[in-house]
Amino acid sequence: MSIRILIADDHAVVRQGLRMFLGLDPELEVIGEAVDGKQALQMAHQLNPDVVLMDLLMPVMGGVEATSIIRRELPDVEVIALTSVLEDSSVVGAIRAGAIGYLLKDTESDELVRAIKAAAAGQVQLSPKAAARLMREVRAPESPEMLTERETEVLRLLASGQSNKEIAYTLSIGEKTVKTHVSNILSKLNVSSRTQAALYAARIGLVDNPGGG
């Protein structure tokens, strides 16, 4: 089963470059290209990709707004923010909107491939520097609903960087069950991404460093 990817970027050269080197990996399949956030949203609904690579600065509708709507309407689709600037506001905006991760456009290709595979597997990957910055900025949910013991355990493993498959193995439960627990956790904490849930887990002392970075 290949990982289905939608690329959203207003620069044709960037889209072509991404399509070209992602196409070299047999586990990845680029199923569409969008030129702005609005088109990305339409195509995400039509194509139901596993991962969207989302440029943040685009005409018509920006990447942060598009990410927010995609995560709300298609919670199974993970979004990776791809940006040319590591600006606090855009990083925080992307994570608040529900992106599972963010990468700079000058990221090495093998690192991008790893990040896509991690996102598709439900892995939160944050560098310690990014985690520290985000924990300051991304507010903890106001009085979240109580998590069950099992949900707390899933959150701890997710926040320490484990994939759905690894969590399933650790807890001796099915991968589908893990996904159900994760969506319950997100709705109880009132957050839209695993990354936000991981930051919350770090904030309440469930893990030391979100994403295991």
Structural notes for this entry:
There is one protein chain. The chain has helices at 12-22, 37-47, 63-73, 88-97, 109-120, 128-137, 149-159, 164-171, 175-189, 194-203, and strands at residues 3-8, 28-34, 51-55, 78-83, 101-104. With 213 residues, it is an alpha/beta fold. Strand 4, helix 4 (88-97) and strand 5 (101-104) form a beta-alpha-beta unit. The radius of gyration is 16 Å and the shape is globular. It starts with a strand and ends in a 10-residue tail after the last helix. The model has no long low-confidence stretch (mean pLDDT 86).
Q: Write the CATH fold name of the largest domain.
A: Rossmann fold
CATH class bucket of the largest domain? Alpha Beta
What would CATH call the homologous superfamily of the largest domain? Answer: Response regulator
Second CATH tier, the architecture of the largest domain: 3-Layer(aba) Sandwich
Largest beta sheet: what is the strand line-up? 2-1-3-4-5
| N-C termini distance | 28 Å
How large is the share of residues in beta strands? 5-15%
Query: Which structural class is indicated by helix and strand composition?
Result: alpha/beta
Shape label? globular
Q: Count up the helices.
A: 10
Q: What is the helix fraction of residues, given as a range?
A: 40-55%
Number of strands: 5
Secondary-structure element string: EHEHEHEHEHHHHHH
* pLDDT averaged residue by residue: 86
Q: Number of domains in the coordinates?
A: 2
| Radius of gyration, taken over Cα atoms and rounded to an integer in Å | 16 Å
Largest sheet: 5 strands, parallel
Instruction: Give the low-pLDDT segments.
Output: none
